[in-house]
Design goal:
The complex is a heterodimer of chains A (742) and B (379).
Chain A: E1 5-10, H1 15-18, H2 21-31, E2 36-40, H3 46-59, E3 63-68, E4 84-89, H4 91-95, H5 103-122, E5 139-142, H6 146-157, E6 162-165, E7 180-181, E8 190-191, H7 194-202, E9 207-210, E10 213-219, E11 225-231, E12 234-240, E13 242-245, E14 249-251, E15 269-271, H8 272-280, E16 295-299, H9 317-331, E17 336-341, H10 350-359, E18 363-366, E19 371-375, E20 378-385, E21 390-397, E22 399-402, E23 406-408, E24 414-415, H11 416-419, E25 441-442, E26 480-482, H12 492-514, E27 530-531, H13 541-545, E28 551-553, E29 559-561, H14 571-575, E30 581-582, H15 588-597, E31 610-615, H16 619-628, E32 637-642, H17 650-658, E33 663-668, H18 682-690, H19 693-699, E34 707-711, H20 720-734
Parallel strand pairs in A: 1-2, 1-3, 3-4, 5-6, 5-13, 6-9, 13-26, 15-22, 16-17, 16-22, 17-18, 31-32, 31-33, 33-34
Antiparallel strand pairs in A: 7-8, 10-11, 11-12, 14-23, 19-20, 20-21, 24-25, 27-30, 28-29
Chain B: E1 3-4, H1 7-14, H2 29-33, H3 45-53, H4 56-61, H5 64-67, H6 73-77, H7 84-99, H8 104-110, H9 112-132, H10 145-148, H11 151-181, H12 190-195, H13 197-206, H14 216-237, H15 240-243, H16 255-280, H17 284-287, H18 291-316, H19 319-343, H20 348-378
Helix pairs in contact in B: 7-8, 9-19, 11-19, 11-20, 13-20, 14-16, 16-18, 18-19
Classes of the chains: A alpha/beta (742), B mainly alpha (379).
Chain lengths: 742, 379
């Protein structure tokens, strides 16, 4: 296709007043050789857009560089079919954050126009990915409990075919054990209406239910998942679009608890789950002799929120204890019921239920570490009452109920790394970059045929989460969404919401994937990684580093990309030492050309240059915000946005420094336990790669201080100017890059 | 030492009018807002905890309920609707019943029927008594109470009643003293009791602690009722021979008349304000009215009103009306004194200043104790 470059410079929003627009246009027409260059006082207006459209129609312009505001705004206005659109940010990142009509400001704007044009020239229009197989929009739900049933029903109601797999012989999951539930509006106990839900699912023609079944194997990716379901010795095959994992939870094993809680010392010490079973099967009695319960105590957080047992809060046990305590009170209003808690956690409207329990006359004791003592069939609890400062005894108890927590179904099974067959002959090279492995437990739920392991990677405590704040329901495997207690501990209300949310994510996934587009967070992106296989050295770097397990391997270790699993973060592109992975609109050469387009002043001009490689998700908007707040930052910097800092290829650093640019500043998201990287480990990988940069610098005989990595969140914009100045000062100290002028 | 939790105490307190203490989740707003709560004597939060845990011993030893004047700030600020002010009020009732060795107070507070019956029986006895024991020679020409019930005889009866009341009240006060002082009761040297005696009088007369509460109006109303009641009590019991006059009408500036008018005004104003407040539930202290609260106000107002009528009938010189009203007046006033003073709401008139006084004694003792101990060691 013949390309024709057109550069448009908007002079609105203060750009025209702060810059020499004529000189800037000259850069476009002379340096960038753009046949068309126009400016407009208000490019985003109907009139401005029409100007561009006329050029597309009449002049054949199809590579458009729009030098105006940040690409984070007006993206819907500057969208033109069949045209490459490159946005050059001379508003937020030039005129709003630099001195107006200053030489340095002008140079910055001119560099950005050059960089934009350089990138645009290399960019091609992406074509949506179409797999060879037929794409399915059907949704597989794994788990037939409350969350799974609801997800299946929601997806079916939205018009999608659903396959539901339940391992037990009957649908219902844990809720079958529950006679009364506590949920909105949290005023009273309500009878469990699970049966209605089960009937609704069973009678729904859009839902195919397998009970007493398990998922034997899943291969492929979103919209091309091939699922084998085993039931009664026979195997059914389904071609599926997306998966909702609602495999539920198991109670924490009370046998592991601290002895002072008395579990096992008396039959009258039971767990909240055992209480639930007892209540559902009849009356609440003292287990040792089946006599009515007159005095009972509930000990909350039994082993929970304790790093030695279950480090987290299961969030429902407070409600469960209140419910069960009220059940005892309703059975016998004269019964004395105590709840011993660390903190009562009944958020939101749940507070009403706590108040109800108080009004029923249940006595609450705040104590961090109660102790159960057994005297024959009677029990005594000794507790430090924090609210009075006294040591108190709850005597003559018939029943002690321990609030043990929820463990997700994914937290069971051996560590995949341990069971993985070792590749014997290959020795670990000293020099090899060690990629932190995903925590995958062989829990026999999904049995994925993925190179990185058969189940979803856990984030913490075995929960298959991706990032609970930014990406609810998402796992680290594209197209597989977790819902219910397998995702995090929750009650009935939470599970219903979760089920609908995960079903919605699954639907989004099949809809986007069938259009060849990426899912969240680059939703709608039509590009995908392409591999130039002739030059592949089978180093496996891409397959190991892909945060989403999107690349399988054949037996010769050739990468087998599964584009429907890909989130387009381009971590693989940064990982590849041979630089054979690229996207139509994002490649190593493109960024390299942008770097090369920067004009580097001579040493005696005393205008050092700094390239900022900024994560487009957090660091780039933070830089925008500096401009929005009209703060000023260093005029030597040139910002290049990256899809993820994980796409950083070390060659860019070599390109930058060998060009005479004085320093490289990498701005990525926080990594580690509280990571904020949109692609999970992109920023972490880039920092690991950076540890190898010394080699490059040594080769160039350069100081390692010329490259700096900083973790930055979107809220850190106020510390950005100082950060940049500090780096610039350090570069001045080191002295100019000796490669200037080469 | 671990103490056993007894949920039955809470159930027991419900008979004394406890309603909302269970709702307390111990945020401590009440203690923070209370102008009278101090780091040494924290209330009402901590006290609510003792109730929830059923620690009867702790409740019995606590002076805190008597430190509270029920201004209602805590109940207004309570985010939970646990009404801590009312809880303090209920514990005052409960403590009154625990201090009382006869068991009468408990019956009084826990049974409305018993209360009404007791008052009716005493009223009837008084009425019959006045009809049976009199001179039988009433003066039908002029309103002359002394012709029917000579003041010397009434004075004698007064003193007898005062002796019985004092005995009952003082014996209960003594029990209160034992509970509050605990082991210290006889350890504290007599000197300290003497030193702090002026506090006892000061507090009794001025109610100055109440004035530290935010709502000054309550202090004023309380002071009016208290001083009005006390002055008229002195008039009818100690100065009866100057008070119960027949023909000789004092001049309007005569001290007895002035005191009488002040008392009448003070009581009528105070009780009317309180009755209207309780009917309208205008502020937290008036929101929950126990039967004994009503009885207290009604009897006091009836006594005063009948007193006013007698005053006028006497001035108008209507003999029959005067004698008739006198009987009614006595039928109201005597049950109030005999029953309410030692056994019910009136008893706080003794307990509150005494407890405040004992606290001061205790504080002085604890402050000076280490000094004395070290002197002893040095010697």
């Amino acid at each position: 296709m013949e390309t024709k470059l057109a550069v448009y410079i908007c002079t609105g929003c203060g750009i025209g007043e702060a810059l020499d627009i004529e000189a800037l246009s000259k850069v476009a027409t002379k340096d960038c050789k753009a046949p068309i260059c126009r400016n407009h006082p208000n490019l985003c207006s109907q009139d401005g857009v029409q100007l561009i459209k006329n050029d597309i129609a009449n002049e054949g312009a199809n590579v458009l560089v729009i030098a105006a505001c940040s690409p984070r705004v007006m993206y819907d206005v500057f969208a033109f079919d069949d045209c490459v659109v490159e946005r050059t940010n001379i508003r937020e990142q030039v005129v709003w954050c630099q001195k107006p009509n200053d030489e340095d400001t002008q140079m910055m704007a001119e560099d950005y126009v050059r960089m934009g044009a350089a990138k645009a020239k290399k960019t091609e229009l992406p074509e949506p990915y179409k797999p060879e197989q037929e794409m399915s929009k059907d949704i597989l739900v794994v788990g037939g409990g409350l969350a799974g049933l609801t997800a299946a029903l929601e997806a079916s109601k939205a018009g999608y075919q659903v396959v539901l797999v339940e391992k037990e012989a009957e649908l219902g999951g844990f809720q079958k054990k529950v006679a009364q539930k506590v949920t909105f509006p949290y005023k009273e106990l309500t009878a469990n209406d699970l049966n209605q839900l089960v009937q609704a699912v069973e009678s729904d023609s859009g839902i195919k239910v397998y009970t007493g079944a398990k998922v034997e194997k899943i291969s492929g990716g979103p919209c091309v998942f091939d699922v084998s379901i085993k039931q009664n010795g026979s195997t059914a095959e389904h071609h599926m679009g997306a998966i909702v994992l609602a495999a539920g939870w198991q109670p924490y094993d009370p046998a592991n608890l601290d002895g002072k809680l008395g579990y096992g010392a008396s039959p009258n010490v039971i767990t909240n789950v055992q209480f639930e079973e007892m209540f559902t099967s009849g009356a609440v009695v003292r287990p040792s002799d089946q006599t009515p319960v007159k005095n009972a105590a509930f000990l909350q957080c039994a082993g929970q929120r304790d790093p030695e047992y279950l480090p987290y809060c299961s969030s429902v046990c407070c409600f469960t204890a209140l419910k069960q305590a009220i059940q005892i009170k309703q059975q016998d209003p004269d019964a004395n019921v105590f709840v011993v808690y660390k903190e009562m956690r009944t958020p939101g409207q749940g507070e009403d239920f706590y108040r109800k329990a108080q009004q029923e006359g249940i006595v609450f004791v705040r104590c961090q570490s109660p102790e159960v003592m057994v005297q024959g069939s009677k029990l005594t609890v000794e507790a430090d009452d924090e609210l009075s400062g006294e040591k108190i005894l709850l005597a003559d108890l018939d029943l002690v109920v321990l609030a043990t927590g929820m463990v997700p179904a994914t937290a069971f099974g051996e560590d995949f790394k341990a069971v993985q067959p070792k590749e014997g002959e290959e020795k670990e090279k000293e020099d090899e970059i060690k990629v932190p492995a995903d925590a995958i437990l062989v829990s026999d739920i999904l049995n994925l045929e993925y190179r990185q392991g058969p189940e979803l990677p856990g984030l913490r405590y075995g929960f298959p989460d991706s990032h609970y704040i930014c990406f609810p329901y998402e796992s680290r495997r594209t197209g597989i969404y977790a819902a219910g207690c397998v995702r995090r501990p929750m009650g009935v209300a939470g599970a219903l919401e979760d089920a609908a949310g995960a079903a919605m994510k699954a639907i989004q996934c099949v809809e986007l994937t069938t259009r060849g587009a990426s899912v969240h967070p680059r939703a709608g992106d039509l590009s995908y990684p392409e591999f130039f296989m002739q030059r592949c050295t089978q180093c496996k770097r891409c397959t190991e580093e892909c945060p989403f397990g999107a690349i399988n391997e054949d037996e010769k270790a050739n990468p087998l990309p599964q584009p429907t699993r890909c989130r387009r973060c381009s971590v693989c592109m940064g990982a590849c030492p041979e630089r054979i992975i690229s996207f139509k609109n994002y490649s190593i050469a493109m960024i390299g050309d942008m770097i090369k387009a920067i004009e580097v002043p001579e040493e005696d001009e005393e205008k050092p240059r700094i390239v900022i490689l900024a994560c487009e998700n957090d660091a780039y908007p933070a830089l925008d915000m500096v401009g929005l707040r009209r703060m000023t930052y260093n005029a030597w910097v040139r910002v290049i946005p990256l899809r993820c800092l994980g796409s950083l290829n070390l060659v860019w650093i070599a390109d930058t420094l060998s060009k005479g640019i004085d320093g490289v500043f990498l701005l990525g998201c926080r990594h580690g336990d509280e990571y904020q990287c949109h692609f999970i480990k992109g920023s972490e990988l880039s920092e690991i790669r950076l540890s190898k940069v010394k080699e490059t610098l040594d080769r160039l005989v350069l100081e390692s201080d010329r490259v700096r990595f900083e973790m930055l969140s979107i809220a850190d914009c106020d510390r950005l100017p100082a950060l940049l100045d500090e780096f610039a000062a350090r570069l001045v100290e080191i002295g100019p890059n000796p490669y200037k002028g080469y | 030492m671990s103490v056993k939790v007894d949920p039955n105490v809470m159930k027991d307190l419900e008979a004394f009018g406890l309603k909302d203490a269970k709702k307390c989740y111990h945020c401590g707003n009440c203690t923070a807002i209370c102008p009278l709560s101090t780091p040494e004597n924290q209330f009402p939060r901590k006290f609510v905890r003792y109730i929830q845990l059923g620690q009867k011993d702790k409740i019995l030893q606590s002076p805190e309920p008597w430190l509270c004047y029920y201004c209602g700030d805590c109940s207004l600020k309570c985010p939970r609707g646990a009404d801590p002010g009312e809880t303090m009020m209920v514990t005052r009732r409960y403590l009154t019943s625990l201090y009382d060795w006869t068991g009468f107070a408990r019956k009084f507070y826990t049974s409305e029927r018993f209360e009404i019956m007791a008052i009716s029986i005493v009223a009837l006895l008084v009425g019959i008594g006045l009809l049976v024991f009199n001179t039988g020679k009433p003066d039908w020409q002029h309103a002359s109470l002394n012709s029917l019930w000579p003041k010397e005889n009434i004075e004698l009866a007064d003193l007898g009643m005062a002796a019985v009341l004092s005995f009952l009240l003082l014996s209960n006060v003594f029990r209160c003293f034992r509970f509050v002082m605990g082991d210290l009761a006889y350890k504290v040297p007599f000197k300290y009791y003497m030193d702090q005696a002026k506090e006892l009088i000061l507090h009794t007369v001025t109610q100055k602690r109440f004035n530290e509460c935010t709502d000054r109006k309550q202090w004023l109303v309380h002071l009016l009722i208290m001083t009005g009641y006390s002055s008229v009590f002195l008039l009818v019991v100690v100065f009866l021979r100057w008070f119960q006059r027949d023909q000789e009408i004092y001049s309007i500036w005569h001290p007895v008349r002035l005191v009488g008018y002040y008392a009448t005004f003070a009581i009528m104003y105070g009780t009317t304000y309180a009755i209207i407040g309780r009917l309208r539930k205008s502020k937290p202290p008036y929101k929950n009215s126990h039967p004994t609260d009503w009885m207290f106000l009604i009897l006091l107002q009836l006594t005063t009103m009948t007193g006013i009528f007698i005053h006028f009938t006497r001035l108008l010189d209507w003999p029959f009306a005067t004698y008739f009203l006198y009987v009614i007046h006595m039928m109201v006033a005597i049950p109030m004194l005999v029953l309410e003073v030692p056994f019910a709401k009136w008893a706080h008139l003794a307990y509150r200043p005494v407890v405040l006084y004992l606290l001061k004694v205790k504080a002085q003792y604890q402050q000076e104790q280490p000094a004395e101990a070290s002197v002893a060691v040095a010697a």
